[in-house]
Specification:
It is built from 13 helices and 12 strands. It is of the alpha/beta class. The strands form 2 sheets. A 6-stranded mixed β-sheet has the order 2-1-3-11-4-12. Strands 5, 6, 7, 8, 9 and 10 form a 6-stranded mixed β-sheet that branches.
Amino acid sequence: MRTQNSNPSRSLRGLALAGATALALLSPGTGQAQDAGAPLILALYAPLAPLPSADARFAFVDKLARQLQSAGISAQPKVFARATDLDAAIKKGQVDLAVLDAFYLAERGSSYNVLAVATAGGEPYLRWGLHTHLPGNSILDLNSKRLAWVSPAGTKEATYINNVLLYGELRVAQFFGMGSPAPDISAAVSDVVLRRADCVFAPEPAVQGKSLRRVYDAGEAGRIPNPALVQVSSKVTADIAAGVRKALSNFNTTGILDGWRTSASVGEPYRQLRVRLRGRPDRSLILAEPSRSNTQVHSGMVATTETPVLLPPVRSLLAPPIDLP
């Protein structure tokens, strides 16, 4: 029997080709096996959400990650305390899904696809107002008082208070005394409770049981959307996004944020908020006197004067009539 001698150079070329093929399959840039096996990073940055502590924030996002994992979507929770840290992680591709505050999303997340919005008591928003421990019945009574506040986008200006909660009618930095921002809304409320500050703009659940009074109701402008779950990276394909919506559509839990809405229109309130956030920063009319109208109608023409009722003298009532024949 004749034995064929193998070609060493051909064997080496085959081994090199096989190694290159295996390397290509394992490479994260060209193969999908690693992307499919690696968990999605689910971030939470919601300093304005009325969650009482850092442990409560992690418990919230961890419960969300477990819900996704039960639906076959591997997710790893991560909490961010500062906007700068979140921004850096997103730029490095280290965040795939994120639960973001409405004001942060409106200012910096216009390109993100909104998948769901958190609910509180079944509603996708919370009502905001100005709360204080001081006496008084109006926001005007708090002129020059210390305001506790949070900077959701990491900026040095309270733009969301100026242009949204106050309709662009008042410049917060000129009206209140403002120090450094608190890290989250629970810390800001604690500053007022402990008398380190005098007042705070906050959602109602954040001040319940804190013995604070509301002196300003922002009305329709104070209906601020709850944090939203958004798609950040391209690793979240259309199929994964559909799976996320399906997993959260019937998800209910206990706490202030108790569920999720996943309808097609969940992103609209954040687009409207983005417009309001850019608002009318130059207007400052809340303390201005109304201008006088140039009209021909004078106050004397429309003013009502009270005149006493004049009764006839008693003698005339008793006198006999003189007009009878």
